[in-house]
Design brief:
- This protein is mostly helical.
- Among the domains are: 5-79, Orthogonal Bundle (Arc Repressor Mutant, subunit A), CATH 1.10.10; 127-178, no CATH class.
- Helix content is 61%, strand content 0%.
- The chain has nine helices and no strands.
- It has helices at residues 5-13, 18-30, 32-50, 53-56, 59-78, 90-112, 115-125, 138-147, 175-178.
- α2 packs across α3.
- The termini are far apart.
Amino acid sequence: MCPERELLSAYVDGELSKEETQAVAAHLKGCPPCARVVSRYQKVRGQLMDETLDEFFQESDIESIKHRIAIELERYRRTRHPFWHRKVGIRWVAAVASFAFILGGFFSYVLLRPKSLTTMSFLESHPSLNVTINVKNMKQLLDILNSQQGIREITIQLPESPQFEFRSEPVFIRASEYNRSTFR
């Protein structure tokens, strides 16, 4: 199996270790196609080392190469490239990064700020504010009382309608015992 051309080029340039050089030399003795490739590489290397490119390239060859490069450049410019392949100026990158940073700061403030501070500061700045909350059952009243932190005074107004009835004598119990008792 023939070695790759990069290995043959490295052989011509003397970039291989002793073992690799010996292995490639042994292969070249039995493989005429690889030997021809190496001889072409050596010829090009010799031309480059002598710096006699005038003999190697003629003026028409150089003009032909320039013309092919110009055609390829024009073809490259005409084709549409995806957005992520286009070059973007540093000013645009900085502007987008700044905008994202400011937007992230705004949203983190809005989403992460403590909501109870705004309620507490409002209640503290308006101590005479009376709030009326209508509840339908005792569980709803307990949920409201347990969720509010800044309650100073609670007035419970019992209904005056005949729907309210006494089932037994009033009993004082602690709040911790209320949940465990059968009183409901």
